[in-house]
Amino acid sequence: TRLADIIAPRAGPHPELYGEEAKSALEALLQSATLTFRETAPRDRWGRRFGRVYIGVGTTLQETLIKAGAARVRPEGDDKTFIAHLLTLEEEAREEKRGLWRNARYRVFDADKASSAVGAFNLIEGVVLKAVAMRGRVYLNFGSDYRTDFTVTVATRSARQWKKDGLDLLSLAGKRLRIRGYVALINGPSIEVTNPMQIEVLTSPTTDRAARR
Predict the structure, then answer these.
(1) Percent of the chain at pLDDT above 70?
(2) Distance between CA 189 and CA 85 in Å, rounded?
């Protein structure tokens, strides 16, 4: 079973990564409440269930973990309202430095320092220098050299659908964005975005200040 739309640190040999604390927070909730699982998408290729876990009536395990700073938002599903709510809870937890947000490992990385974020799920923020569509993909370039600077890529098919839904990727040049996802090293740090909620357009000074804390 996978909890939809969040990612929590894994427990392991590196306590500085907050994995044990996240595990303890989850175990405490599992032992102290009546939980109900509701699938929100078909099972994945490994047969794992994917959905939300409700604590009593109304509140989800996802909300509780995000609010406590025991997990981060990883948009995967189609319920944009629910994911937007999780993002708001995450921002509050980050601003107040709850849980994992006290650990510099989970900071929001600046786009010009994204090489430090390679190899893990991370949040990266910066201004898009150029947005282009070519060879079946849309590229959001955050620097002048695509071979070394941070880049976001989206399949053209997805980009077309998102434009119909109100997110025009090619209009994002000059905008400050917060991107979340697995950071790979492909001609510099790169995130392949598969869900539009992985992209946050930062428009207010308050949001920007909170992101950089």
Answers:
(1) 83
(2) 28
208, amino acid identity? D
Q: Kindly report, residue by residue over 140-165, the tens digit of the pLDDT.
A: 999 988 889 999 999 999 999 999 99
pTM of the model: 0.84
What are the structure tokens assigned to 16, written together?
């500085």
* Structure letter (DSSP) for residue 147: T
Secondary structure element (H or E) that encloses residue 151, with its range: strand 151-155
Cβ atoms 75, 5 nearer than 8 A? yes
Give the CA distances from residue 43 to residues 2, 47, 49, 110, 151, in Å, rounded to whole numbers and listed in that order: 10, 5, 5, 35, 31
Q: What are phi and psi of 103, to 5 degrees?
A: -95, 125
Average pLDDT over residues 16-44: 68
- Tens digits of residue pLDDT in 174-201: 999 999 999 999 989 999 999 999 999 9
* β pairing state of 151-155 and 137-141: antiparallel
Q: Specify the long-range contacts of residues 209-212, CB closer than 8 Å, at least 24 apart.
A: 210/91, 210/94, 210/95, 211/91, 211/94, 211/108, 211/125, 211/178, 212/108, 212/125
Closest alpha carbon to 123 in 94, 159, 82 = 94
